[in-house]
Amino acid sequence: MSERTDVNDPNRPNELHEIRVMVVDDHPMWRDAVARDLAAAGFDVVATAGDGPEAVRRAHAVTPDVLVLDLNLPGMPGVQVCKELVGANPALRVLVLSASGEHADVLEAVKSGATGYLLKSAGAQELIDAVRRTAAGDPVFTPGLAGLVLGEYRRLATDPLPATSDEPKAPQLTDRETEVLRLVAKGLSYKQIAERLVISHRTVQNHVQNTLGKLQLHNRVELVRYAIERGLDDA
């Protein structure tokens, strides 16, 4: 990372030190540089790892809030690491930091549970902001990739999951939960939703978590797909 952040910057959020971050990359110099930049910015870097199996073991042990994850890892692909860890702990946020901007890699990462996807060409300050936003639950993508992901949500909506004959009646959402769900489906970040509805960021998060629980969904990908299937993004 070539840029540096000023650890004495008065505009730096005070809450950064509360965010526990783990960095996973198989290149030691890059991994150490990322961890150093994040620590200098005030994040609590609780662990690093250089391969897939080590990443899974250490993440289970240290329970980070955000996993900064490379996709190309020895022993186990990054998408599998993401899938296993998010499956075991849905509260974990994963920010993929990859050299690849291939559409297939981006979509596979998101489908495995990643909250965001940033290219390694990003500067240090961009990474710091991305980790902070990822911890807050906002989807973070290198410019140009967010539209790709939303487009995939729409494609998935044309091939809905098959219904079973004993499928229970859809849970009843409150008006506010439906409103938040509609804005999530439109691709708005939690911060943007909070500003639009004049409520706090945490209230938006609570509504999303309540909705996930009611609908028995696991992550934002499934939530957006659910909303688009029901036409909420066009409402």
What does this structure look like?
This protein is α/β, with parallel strands linked by helices and 235 residues long. Helices cover 48% and strands 11% of the residues. It contains ten helices and six strands, in the order βαβαβαβαβαβααααα. It is globular and about 50 Å long. Keywords: DNA-binding, Phosphoprotein. It comes from Streptomyces virginiae. The modification 4-aspartylphosphate is found at residue 70.
Biggest sheet layout: 6 strands, parallel
Shape: globular
Share of residues in strands = 5-15%
Rg for CA atoms = 18 Å
Order of helices and strands: EHEHEHEHEHEHHHHH
Q: Quick check: average pLDDT?
A: 81
Number of DSSP E strands: 6
Helix content: 40-55%
Spatial separation of the terminal alpha carbons = 42 Å
Count the helices. How many?
Answer: 10
The stretches of 5 or more residues where confidence is low (pLDDT under 50) are 2-14, 163-168
Structural class: alpha/beta
Seen as an oligomer or otherwise, the chain set is single chain
Protein name: Response regulator transcription factor
Pfam family, one: GerE
Keywords: DNA-binding, Phosphoprotein
Salient structural properties:
alpha/beta; single chain; six-stranded parallel β-sheet; disordered N terminus; 235 residues; Sig_transdc_resp-reg_C-effctor; globular
Secondary-structure topology with pairs:
Blueprint: E1 20-24, H1 28-40, E2 44-49, H2 52-62, E3 66-69, H3 78-88, E4 93-98, H4 103-111, E5 116-119, H5 124-135, E6 140-141, H6 145-157, H7 175-185, H8 190-197, H9 201-215, H10 220-229
Parallel strand pairs: 1-2, 1-3, 3-4, 4-5, 5-6
Protein name: Response regulator transcription factor
InterPro entries: CheY-like_superfamily, NreC/VraR/RcsB-like_REC, Sig_transdc_resp-reg_C-effctor, Sig_transdc_resp-reg_receiver, Tscrpt_reg_LuxR_C, WalR-like
Domain Response regulatory: 20-135
